[in-house]
Specification:
Elements: E1 11-18, H1 25-33, E2 51-56, E3 60-66, H2 76-87, E4 94-99, H3 107-116, E5 123-127, H4 135-145, E6 151-156, H5 165-174, H6 193-208, E7 218-226, E8 232-241, H7 244-251, H8 256-273, E9 276-285, H9 293-298
Parallel strand pairs: 1-3, 1-4, 4-5, 5-6, 8-9
Antiparallel strand pairs: 2-3, 7-8
Length: 307
């Protein structure tokens, strides 16, 4: 007898997360895929590269692009970050615009809204951090934003607590078409382990250092290899800063700050790599590296990245 039951279609596509710095893009992406890949901190402009991660379910596969926050660039690194964020808008299937839960729409949001009005890509407005406001305020916030762009949907979430993120996934799939599985079902990112490890070190620097230092910090992985036993990975890395005074602060009194950064980063690395990590950190000064095209590229930041 012929089976008349229709097989469920498999959907796939690319979804970018945009928004001003520090609205929770990386936190939301980590929550959606169920594992920490993108670094997070309370400081703005945490993400520098376009991080690509993968969510796979029976319904389909979503490839997320967590972009740097869109902001007014102050140096060549800043220009790179904004270029990476803005060029994805017409390269993806769905755009998630994350905003703070407030009725005040500032110049930064107005700038993003203007960019979104120029694209034909479906836009979903995501109001994040709803755990910080009363439910009654949400309607006012939605009303304030609803005419800023042609939103297909407006979805309130708490990325930190995972509230309403399942609904957000359903909404995204509604705007994706049938397509292939781009990645193996077990894949969660296309980022090289060396890059993820470098970002973990930079995250700990962001979280532990004074405000004026972290954005002048980059991390280079000098060596990363697994011992023959297969139970230990040796990693040698260099934290690069722009001033000699910053170097002293990063190292700290009797090396205390550098040890703290290393200890915290090693913990995350061992969870990621599922083995013991022997991490050695050094600090070097490269003055004004954020203005150097060569050094920006040398530290792994590329304007011309493709999917």
């Amino acid at each position: 007898m012929k089976n008349t039951k229709k097989e469920k279609s498999f959907k796939s596509g690319f979804v970018t997360l945009i928004g001003r710095p520090n609205v929770g893009k990386s936190t939301l992406m980590n929550q959606l895929i169920g594992q920490k890949i993108a670094i997070t901190s309370s400081k703005p402009k945490t993400t520098r590269n376009r991080i690509q991660t993968v969510y796979t379910s029976e319904e389909g596969q979503i490839i997320f692009l967590d972009t740097p926050g869109i902001h007014k660039a102050k140096n060549k690194l800043g220009e790179y970050m904004v270029t990476v964020a803005e060029r994805t808008l017409n390269e993806v299937d769905v755009i998630l615009w994350l905003v703070e839960p407030t009725t005040f729409i500032g110049a930064g949001e107005k700038h993003i809204a203007e960019k979104l009005r120029q694209t034909d890509t479906p836009v979903i407005l995501v109001i994040n951090k709803i755990d910080t406001v009363e439910k009654a305020e949400l309607l006012k916030i939605i009303d304030a934003y609803k005419d800023e762009a042609d939103f297909k949907e407006i979805v309130p979430v708490s990325a930190r607590k995972g509230e309403n993120t399942d609904e957000l996934l359903k909404v995204m799939f509604a705007y994706l078409e049938e397509g292939p599985m781009f990645y193996d079902p077990d894949t969660i990112t296309d980022q090289p382990e060396r890059q993820i490890v470098a970002e973990m070190i930079r995250e700990k620097a962001l979280r532990n250092l004074d405000d004026e230092i972290p954005h002048g910090v980059a991390v280079a992985i000098d060596e990363m290899h697994e011992r023959k036993s297969g139970t230990i990975i040796d990693i040698r890395a260099t934290i690069v800063c722009e001033k000699n005074s910053h170097k002293g602060i990063i190292i700290g009194k009797q090396g205390a700050m550098l040890k703290k950064i290393g200890s915290q980063a090693r913990h995350d690395m061992e969870n990621l790599l599922d083995c013991q990590v022997n991490l050695k950190l050094w600090v070097k000064v490269k003055k004004d590296w954020r203005e150097s095209d060569f050094l920006i590229k040398n530290f792994g930041y590329r304007k011309d990245e493709e999917f």
